[in-house]
Amino acid sequence: KGIDLLPKVIPDFVLGGDTRLMELKEALVRAEASGDGMEIAHAYTDLADAGVSIWLDDLSRERLESGNLADLIETMGVVGVTTNPSIFQTALADGEAYAAQVADLAAADSGVDDAVFAMTTDDVRAACDLFTPLYERTDGVDGRVSIEVDPRLARDTAATVDQAQALHAAV
């Protein structure tokens, strides 16, 4: 898997009318349409060089274990990644990468919330390890990984803060 999200998620108004960034976005659209991997990588590199922070919105165990995330950091200038319940649900449903951990957690009688917490924090921790050199090189400007607290806690400030602290400690 590559990353083909940028042209879809960055509307022109976000680029603030910056002609150079709009040209780079269009170059990326053309590169992705061509299917030429080198042209695509060059287009992403040009965007990163122009100051665009390229984030992935699809952390998954498969992306981690296959080396794809490391490759995207190295070749496409990806500087961050995020996960949330919807992203995790898709990752869990799309592959077998979680099967062993799910079986272990089920054998340990982990509840659903505990199992999701364990799997997502394991993935985020692994992604953090990949981004650490970039984070250190940029003094924390880039190289970040985000995880969302359980949205069911949205109306409970104390529980939200508690879970955020638990996520931080686990990662």
Q: Overview of this structure, please?
A:
It is built from 9 helices and 3 strands; from the N terminus they run H-H-H-E-H-H-E-H-H-H-E-H. It has helices at 6-9, 19-34, 37-49, 61-65, 68-76, 85-94, 99-107, 112-137, 157-170, and strands at residues 54-56, 78-83, 144-147. It has a 3-stranded parallel sheet with strand order 1-2-3. It starts with 5 loop residues before the first helix and ends with a helix.
Tell me the layout of helices and strands.
Elements: H1 6-9, H2 19-34, H3 37-49, E1 54-56, H4 61-65, H5 68-76, E2 78-83, H6 85-94, H7 99-107, H8 112-137, E3 144-147, H9 157-170
Parallel strand pairs: 1-2, 2-3
Structural class: mainly alpha
Note the main sheet. Answer: 3 strands, parallel
Strand content: 5-15%
Order of helices and strands: HHHEHHEHHHEH
The CA-CA distance between the termini, in Å, is 25 Å
- Summarize model confidence as the mean pLDDT: 85
Number of strands: 3
- The number of distinct helices, counting runs of at least 4 residues, comes to 9
Shape, principal axes of CA atoms: globular
Radius of gyration: 18 Å
The order of strands across the largest sheet is: 1-2-3
**Low-confidence spans:** 1-9
Helical fraction equals 55-70%
Primary descriptors:
mainly alpha; single chain; disordered N terminus; 3 strands; globular; 171 residues; three-stranded parallel β-sheet; 9 helices
